[in-house]
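FIELD: query
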Amino acid sequence: MAAYAALVSLMNTMDHVQNDPRLSRYLDQKQVESLGEKVGFLLDFIETCHSHGGSREEVLESRIAFAAHAAEDVIESHAVDVLFVGSVFPERTSSIILSYALNAIEDIKRKGRKTISPWRLKLGLRKVIEKMDSIKKKVIEIKQIKGNAVNLTHSPSPTSSTAFMGAEKSKMVGFEDDLLQLMERLTGRQPNRQIIPIVGMGGIGKTTLARNVYENPLIVQHFDICCWVTVSQEYSVRKVLLELLSCQIKPTSEMDGKDEAQLGEQLYKSLFGMRYLIVLDDMWSIDAWDKINRFLPNNNNRSQVVVTTRLLEVANHFGSSRHMMSFLDEDKSWELFCQKAFGKEGNCPLELEGIGKEIVKECKGLPLSIVVIGGLLGKSINTREYWEKFAKEKKSILNTRGGEESLDILSLSYNHLPAHLKPCFLYMGVFPEDHVISVSKLIKLWVAEGFIKPNSTQSLEESAEGYLKDLVDRNLVLVRRLGSTGKMKTCTIHDLLRELCLKVAQKEKFLCVTSVLDIPLGIDKGQRIRIFHAFVSTLLDGSNLVSKGGKLSLKVLNVVDSDSSLRDIFEQINLRYVCKSYSFRALPPSISWLWNLQTLIIRGKEYFTAPREIWMMLQLRHLEFDKIYLLEPPPSGDLQTTLPNLQTFFKILNLELSEELCMTIPNVKKLKLKYRDFSAEKYHLYNLDLLHKLESLSCFFQEAPKWGDLVQNLKFPSSLKKLSLRNSNLRWEDLTVIGSLPHLEVLKLMGLNSIVGNEWNPVEGEFIRLKFLGIYYCYDLMHWNADRSHFPVLENLVLEGLSKLDEIPFDIGEIPTLGLIELDGCSESAAISAVRILEEQESLGNEGLQVRVKLLDNAKVERFGEKVKEEFGSFTSGNFQLRAINRFS
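FIELD: result
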């Protein structure tokens, strides 16, 4: 919803200007208070009485959006005046940077803004306040007509909870027979490779069926290699090949440099002789298959390829072996709806059953529609009155808009969203089809775009996590992958729902997705543009195309795989989010002109240096570099040098953690540090415990420090939840300092010199909340003496490169929460001990534990398989995976 997004964005901008001493001194406080009151009033109207199709309100909301954008434009123009007009440059400013800056200033002056004029700001605000006052009167009139009735479709604002819903595998309600049939075909005895197409319309469950089969333990055990890749309409063969390889090995820079033919040859070699299962999801053309197929060998060992497609023509290309997906009958449709609306038990209140079945019947057996509407009604008011009103709206849509039935049904899920979720949902359309979306990036973008309304109990990011959880609960966003702490790492959106986002966003003039050559004319203020180019992916605030000569209004700049010039930054002083490649070795002092910048992500292979002025960028929330030196903050004085909003601070080289610096970043939550030559006296790591909100810390020592030098400085804040140490040169007994951290959930120990010593004896009462333990290439470790009491809530144990470890402690298997033991390149005896733990647990009825063993080559895998048979006899388990580590030159 454009009006809500515009008002919240304006509210955030007003707050930022008032908190910036360079900008606030020109503001008239009475005007600010008047504008703030009207913004609050209109926000309340949008949140409680927003329309669902009424043309009168649609016109009014359009006026609100236009007025809010006009107000923000006035304020941002004021920022340009203050920061650019009459600017003074430091002597050390390079000639090329100075040239860019001066050109930008001259451009502003050519437009007539030669001086800073408080009267221009005052006059501009007076005009927008008058507009909003006029709109406010209209709103009051409408409220009186309606008797202040609150629309039944309004849902309560999100609660303070920010816990994500787990990535639970979708139960195949209604398709149990399809699941069994496909399982039987994939595990059949026919030696030749089969291609099995699953065909059906969008939203009918093709991908869900394939995913349930792909993740089934029996299937995982049956095949040597399992790979999944989404092809989509706009496919790239090279990208598909890279993803297929990435299912087997970690991507490398060497792979990035290979062309399509070289990647195809590498894939062919990796699959040759192996029994593989490959799922090619969302295939749209035979041409795509022909280009990929030549790199998939037929090993005559029962390898299988599953293709999901909406097109019968594509399915028929593979012969008569297609698996047709059909619609659900009424009973199965009702079962699926109840599960989504009322949880696993699926118990529908008796008074809602009749109207509920009427609603489900209109979905005509399409699983996606049933799932989305079930999720919507499950989050709504569970009264018969509300459900009857919903049913009438649904029938009205179906009776008046035949043709695009699936999209029309799903449009109800948008109409019935609360106002604060609508812009967040529509924004999902900016991502390409089938794109795996980083949750961290998505939240940063939502915040930068101004969608998140501030509250007194949560940060903007925490509120955004709550918004995302709500969209997941409503089945509008799908969880793709969870991180080590159980939080959502990546997500995605169904193609049909993305089409809905684009359709509604275009109608509401909120979002436009186009190519770089096809930018339409007449883009309205506030309409965001997603521009696609061969090497450039840029998120734009479209107001820059119609105001100020196409400059200074860009809010989000996301340029990947392109080393563009500095001009694109300096000409856009109101940027809030920047992610780009950068070849210069030093960021210029003028970076501080970006007064409203919240997120700065710079990619590049070189070591960068950032200027002291970066400490004066008050709105910074996330600073992420591949590697950068930061000069210490300037001496405290007239300039404020505290970064109160900074939460993410990556990847800082040789940072001196003085008390003064820690006071500068009091609210940092995520910190990544790298030291080339560690010195306790110089870098003051003991001051880490001054960062009372720090949750995630990564320390990488390029050269292992002397033992004792670091131990004496191991002081961590009690808030720490995640810790990664590389080459720290600690001893196992030193881990008591870490184990005593009361909230630690993730511990990763990495590198040849991370932990020194051949025996680890944990102390009972430590690691009480540890969920993830990863030990990587600590070659010295031979004996590990522990039981369930030492890691009482451990969920994941990952061991890599422990070639001397004799065994995993047997009692580790008795930890009730343990779900995974993974060994990669470890000793054979350690791998045998993991199988022994699994056998014991399954004999006791524990089916929740999985064991994965990767050995260096196929010969070792064969020998180990024989040893397992020799020691455990006929023991087989779908929860045990044995594979070779595929390494390619």
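FIELD: remark
The mean pLDDT is 80.
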